[in-house]
Design brief:
The complex is a heterotrimer of chains A (758), B (154) and C (285). Chain B has 154 residues and is α+β, with helices and mostly antiparallel strands. Chain B has helices at residues 23-30, 86-93, 103-116, 122-128, 140-151, and strands spanning 2-8, 11-17, 49-52, 55-58, 71-73. Chain C has 285 residues and is α+β, with helices and mostly antiparallel strands. In chain C, helix 10 runs antiparallel to helix 11 and helix 11 packs antiparallel against helix 12. The longest helix of chain C has 22 residues, at 263-284. Classes of the chains: A alpha+beta (758), B alpha+beta (154), C alpha+beta (285). The interface between A and C is medium-sized, with 23 and 23 residues.
Chain lengths: 758, 154, 285
């Protein structure tokens, strides 16, 4: 009675529908102080002075910290250390934290924040990729304005272009995207035993936060306990920056000896949290008349903002996927993430891929149009399959479901019929249908090799209920449910008997970060490793009880039985009771190290990810030619994710991801004024889709089993957003004949291009 | 400070509160009903939706002093005697919950709709929850849950 | 939230008494959906006093009389949008109220608040222009009736004195042949209009007799497209006339660029929305 593959109810749904789930802002400690940040009102400037004297006199204010108060290192440990917890000499973006106030009440804290007086000497700002890469651009960091560069070199692009019958070259631009998780960032720090500290909070990566807190306080990791509270959405947005909030809350708690709660307002969250990187992509593609690709040359720029945070690996992922899921023998990709005086950018679902995939899937569409090949067909012609090589020379050995995603999405969406029906539209309302394909390397791969391991601790209690401790986190994606299903099947027990313990760094092993769609594979495999060991121990017990060799015993459905004669059986419970009587240790650590990956920075080649997931999206739109308004009618989204452990959760990921993709394609964008201040830092001006802005979304699950994944699963979560924007833009082209090369496709932009074309 | 008398989830409370306190803060801080969430504080996201005198409102945009004499229902009052309401059950069955932060407000908007229109159309449902952002689900499974709850006659 | 004091107003007399005594920076709290955001965003200069008028039942009703429909200023957008008789008489107004915010906002936001807030993008205002609404302003010194188009002086600015209250809105109970409200927002719900158009018109012997058109979010206040109306008078609703009216209205509007939209787009959309409105009228006629 396997539960893997079944849409069992979520473990966390009950608490959440009752309103009982405890998010960090729902927690309270006696004697607790409230913290508020003092955020820079200068975009780029030297700090001349910080005067806190007036603010300190506000009744109820207990402590105000600036960089001078930091006992440890004033740098947030992420990929490289360049972002301070609190600005020291220079602020590099509008909104950068300069000081934090802890007070008895929020009103006192807010009043004090207004009275902290900071004098700046403004510096010349850099507000775009183009400005940042100018030779004479002001330097934002001592190392200059390039946070990091990577490249791919494969074959000979000059030869490849010379073999091409057609070459197309275009520039693409994409905007910032804000995660807009419904729960803003928040941390609650509480002084603990023997000089230690406990931090509760909303986060994806507790062990990153632990390192950050240890760093700012200059105390060892074993004195820092991190407890993840129920987390109201992440999407990558709670990967890097929670370390900064936690560090500052911890600093205040440490210095006051009192619990301190820091929960951001929506505006503060907008100003200070990491975003999806804006991009500028120069893309050149060569192909033969029959549609086969001969060469691809890409220069990929990301605006990393003021600090590098996760930018190097975000860009690296974009680089590896820059040529799309296609065969091409001659590739040259250069990628640079540059500094600007705008908010730092970091992880966001898709992680550097949606930008470049918008470019390559636009290129494929343009090629198809110019070569008079059906857009789905040109993807089929070039699609990778088992045995093919990626742009970095990695041979794809198993589980490549791309072609099936193309077939299924094209069939189910009635692509052929709709292509011709929609082409008949000639009036004010015109429909179009477009396609995009993409792939996604599961987990961190060679870009994050040092985190490519995961621990799990599995414990069977004397009543035969099971505790599972993993360091990966639930943020809404359904991890607790999926890992419970995996554990249940691995032990042959009921799903209801599995409990994934809350993430507490003193209780769970470091399983690496919960990012890159990696929790299912990484924690799932670690759990299976632990369960294997436990079943080994239980096997000995059952063997003696049944007098049947354990090799022929089957563990299933809360029982263990003889394979050849299932009536010879024991209940799981009775085996556990016996094991406890015999002092068998029924708790153990599992460990999983990801398969080999590597990348050579010099040659730009390597075995980058241990497996990939694949998808094809078919989008249908209706364009109002008189207003430029694009309405997405339908998205048919086919995804190869290996085994779907819980199909309903997979569907939820697709539904939600596609809607985020619709937002990215059409409406979402951060706006800045000339001085570099974000001017739409809230939900009334940063526009995300509501229930009436969605489309019919038809998810198709394709399962190309990955043998090294738990039950054949690969990983899921990010893929659904990645190909949505190009499918929509390609559909807009089909509807209007207008090619949009910049996101979002607002009515203003589309209407003006339609006007030019007339 | 002002004294107010309110009935929340059927229970009467008399409290002294500052005049500038919002209903949201009053519920969370004075009554410890933390199921109602703060997502934006500006009436945009709907996470703080409660039912005030029979109507769904953003509790972040209501002052508690305005509620003197009012009847309020929050997520904590949706189930009865510790049992889930059919609406809550439908959210659970349909995987209409992901991160859960929008869920209480979403359930309250749905409740307010079903109280007025027991058998709404899909369009009516979408319109009833248009003021409740959900960044996780794409709304589909939520709409399905509400349809199901309405068929079950909740 | 900033500390401030709130006075719960028990009656208009209570308000007038307080006004006589004098108050520092009084602001009316009706539905609260604009005021509380302004306070949160620190847009009001302290110290200020919040006058909670939400309990004034006398301002909460709608009366249908021989010549006028009188709408109390505390009637909410939700009450207006769902009102069947109002929908028959003033479809442009009910459509507009339906488009405001979300159900939660419409359940709180009042029509008087929307007027008093004086946003050029406010949805309820353009329809009030085309239906010739008048505002009943009262204070301790007396009362006055003001035509809606004389009330606004700029974005967020009106001729209202601080303790003068909008008591009710009076609209001539005149049946038109057609009324509509069209708006463009950045998304389909919860959007502030980046441009809007209200239109109400009558026909006589097949020709347009009286067509009123108001545009929102294209200037410092809502504006009436007077020249376009003049052009339409006496004409039949033909495709050529509709097209020409579109050209004229584009010249009447002087919009600006802001974070929601651009000047050029807004200008074009005046024409687009008018063409849509007139075309719809032609089709239903």
């Amino acid at each position: 009675m396997s539960v893997v593959g079944k849409s069992v109810e979520r473990k966390d749904a009950l608490d959440k529908v009752l309103g009982l789930a405890q998010y960090v802002d729902d927690m309270h400690f006696d004697n607790m102080l409230i913290a508020k940040g003092v955020y820079s009102k200068e975009t780029y400037g030297k700090i001349i002075s910080i005067d806190i004297s007036k603010a300190e006199r506000v009744k109820g204010v207990v402590k105000i910290v600036t960089s001078k108060d930091i006992p440890g290192e004033n740098l947030v440990p992420i990929v490289r250390k360049d972002m301070p917890f609190l600005a020291e000499d220079v602020v590099r973006y509008y909104g950068e934290p300069v000081a934090y106030v802890a007070a008895e009440t929020i009103e006192a804290a807010e009043e004090a924040v207004k009275l902290v007086h900071i004098q700046y000497k403004p510096l010349e700002t850099v507000l775009s990729i183009e400005e940042s890469i100018k030779e004479k651009a002001p330097k934002i960091h001592p190392h200059g304005n390039i946070h990091k560069s990577y490249k791919i070199r494969k074959g000979d692009v000059a030869r490849g272009f010379s073999e091409a019958d057609i070459i197309i070259e275009n520039e693409y631009r994409t905007p910032h995207q804000e995660h807009s998780y419904l729960e803003t960032n928040g941390m609650l720090a509480v002084p603990a035993y023997e000089g230690g500290i406990t931090v509760y909070g909303s986060m994806q990566c507790p062990f990153y936060v632990q390192e950050g807190v240890a760093n700012i306080l200059n105390i060892p990791l074993n004195k820092v306990r991190i407890v993840q509270t129920v987390t109201g959405g992440g999407f990558g947005g709670k990967e890097d920056i929670p370390s900064l909030y936690a560090g500052n809350a911890a600093l205040l708690a440490y210095l006051t000896g009192r619990p301190v709660k820091l929960v951001l307002t929506r505006e503060e969250d907008f100003f200070t949290s990491s975003k999806r990187h804006p991009s500028l992509i120069k893309y050149k593609t060569g192909a033969r008349k029959d549609g086969t690709l001969t060469a691809i040359e890409v220069t990929y720029y990301l605006d990393g903002g003021a600090y590098s945070t996760l930018s190097p690996i975000v860009m690296w992922r974009g680089l590896i996927h820059a040529t799309g899921p296609y065969r091409c023998e001659n590739v040259r990709v250069d990628s640079h993430v540059v500094a600007t005086n705008r908010v730092h950018c970091g992880a966001f679902r898709g992680f550097g891929q949606p930008q470049v995939i918008f470019a390559h899937e636009s290129q494929m569409d343009i090629l198809a149009d110019k070569l008079q090949i059906d857009p789905a067909e040109i993807r089929r012609i070039n699609a990778v399959n088992v045995g093919d090589e990626t742009s970095t020379g990695q041979k794809l050995e198993t589980s490549v479901g791309l072609l099936e995603t193309i077939e299924k999405s094209v069939d189910k969406s009635e692509w052929q019929q709709k292509r011709s029906i929609y082409e008949q539209d000639k009036g004010d309302k015109r429909r179009g249908i477009g396609v995009s394909s993409c792939f996604y390397g599961v987990s961190l791969g060679a870009g994050g090799r040092k985190y490519e391991r995961s621990g799990a601790y599995v414990e069977i209690n004397r009543d035969s209920s099971v505790n599972v401790a993993v360091g990966t986190t639930e943020m809404g994606q359904g991890m607790r449910t999926v890992l419970s299903q995996i554990t249940a099947d691995a032990l042959g027990v009921k799903y209801e008997d599995i409990y994934i313990v809350p993430v507490d760094s003193t209780r769970v092993p470091d399983s690496g970060p919960t990012v890159a769609s990696r929790a299912t594979v990484m924690s799932g495999n670690a759990i299976r490793d632990a369960c294997r060991q436990l079943k080994e121990r239980l096997g000995k017990v059952a063997e003696e009880m049944l007098k049947i060799p354990r090799e022929v015993l089957v563990w299933d459905n809360d029982e263990v039985y003889f394979k050849q004669n299932p009536s010879v059986k024991l209940t799981f419970k009775s085996v556990i009771e016996e094991a406890y009587k015999r002092d068998v240790h029924l708790a153990t650590q599992g460990w999983f190290v990801a398969p080999y990956t590597t990348f050579d920075e010099e040659t730009g080649q390597g075995w980058c990810y241990f497996t990939y997931v694949y998808s094809t999206n078919v989008a249908e739109v209706e364009v109002d030619m008189t207003t430029g308004i694009v309405t997405v009618l339908k998205v048919t989204a086919a995804h190869d994710l290996g085994k779907a452990i819980n199909p309903a959760l997979v569907e939820g990921q697709i539904q939600g991801g596609v809607v985020q993709g619709i937002g990215y394609a059409l409406i979402e964008n951060l706006l800045y004024d000339k001085s570099g201040k974000m001017i739409n830092p809230n939900f009334s001006t940063y526009i995300i889709p509501t229930s009436v802005d969605t489309a019919v979304i038809d998810p198709i699950i394709v399962e190309h089993i990955y043998p090294d994944g738990p039950y054949g699963a690969k990983g899921f979560g990010e893929l659904p957003i990645i190909g949505v924007a190009p499918a929509i833009v390609n559909a807009v082209f089909h509807a209007t004949g207008v090619r949009m090369k910049e996101l979002p496709v607002t009515p203003e932009r589309l209407f003006s291009v339609i006007g030019e074309k007339k | 400070m002002k004294k107010i008398k309110v009935k929340v989830n059927g229970k009467e409370y008399v409290k002294d509160i500052p005049e500038y306190k919002t209903l949201l803060d009053f519920l969370r801080e004075d009554l410890f009903l933390t199921g109602t969430k703060r997502g934006c504080g500006a009436g945009e996201c709907g996470a703080c939706t409660v039912i005030l005198n029979g109507r769904a409102v953003n509790s972040c945009l209501v002052l508690a002093v305005e509620c003197d004499g009012a009847e309020i229902k929050t997520i904590e009052g949706e189930g009865e005697n510790g049992k889930l309401s059919p609406l809550q059950e439908a959210f659970q069955h349909h995987h209409a919950v992901q991160c859960g932060f929008c869920t209480p407000g979403m359930v309250m908007s749905a409740r307010s709709l079903l109280d007025r229109v027991p058998h709404p159309t899909e369009e009516e449902i979408k319109e009833a929850i248009e003021g409740n952002f959900c960044r996780c689900t794409g709304y589909k499974q939520i709409v399905e849950a509400i349809i199901d709850a309405s068929r079950g006659g909740s | 939230m900033r500390r401030f004091s709130v006075i719960r107003i028990r009656s208009l007399e209570h308000l007038f008494d307080l006004a006589e005594k004098g108050m520092t920076n009084p602001y009316f709290l009706a539905g609260g959906t604009d005021l509380l955001i302004k306070i949160k965003d620190d847009l009001l200069i302290p110290p200020f006093t919040v006058l909670d008028i939400s309990g004034l039942q006398e301002l909460r009703s709608i009366h249908f009389e021989q010549d006028y429909v009188r709408i109390g200023s505390l009637v909410t957008h939700g009450e207006i949008e769902k009102h069947p008789e109002l929908r028959l008489l003033f479809p442009s107004l009910t459509d507009a109220c339906h488009g405001v915010g979300s159900p939660q906002i419409r359940n709180r936001a009042t029509i008087g608040g929307n007027i008093g807030n004086a946003s050029p993008a406010a949805d309820s205002i353009p329809p009030l222009y085309v239906y010739g609404a008048e505002l009943h302003l009262v204070n301790s010194k007396g009362e006055r009736w003001v035509k809606i188009e004389d009330f606004f002086t700029g974005p967020g600015k009106t001729i209202r004195n601080p303790v003068e209250i909008i008591k009710e809105i009076r609209i001539p109970a005149e049946k038109r042949d057609y009324g509509t409200y069209l708006r463009l927002g950045q998304r389909k719900a919860l959007a502030i209009s980046k441009i809007s158009l209200a239109l109400a018109g009558k026909k006589k012997n097949g020709s347009m007799e009286d067509v009123k058109i108001a545009l929102g979010a294209v200037g410092p206040t809502v504006i009436m497209a007077v020249e376009t109306s003049l052009y339409l008078r006496g004409k039949e609703l033909s495709s050529e006339v509709i097209k020409e009216a579109g050209n004229i209205i584009e010249k009447e509007a002087e919009p600006i660029t802001d974070l929601r939209s651009s000047k050029e787009y807004r200008k074009k959309m005046c024409s687009t929305l008018l063409v849509k409105a007139l075309t719809n009228w032609k089709q239903v006629a």
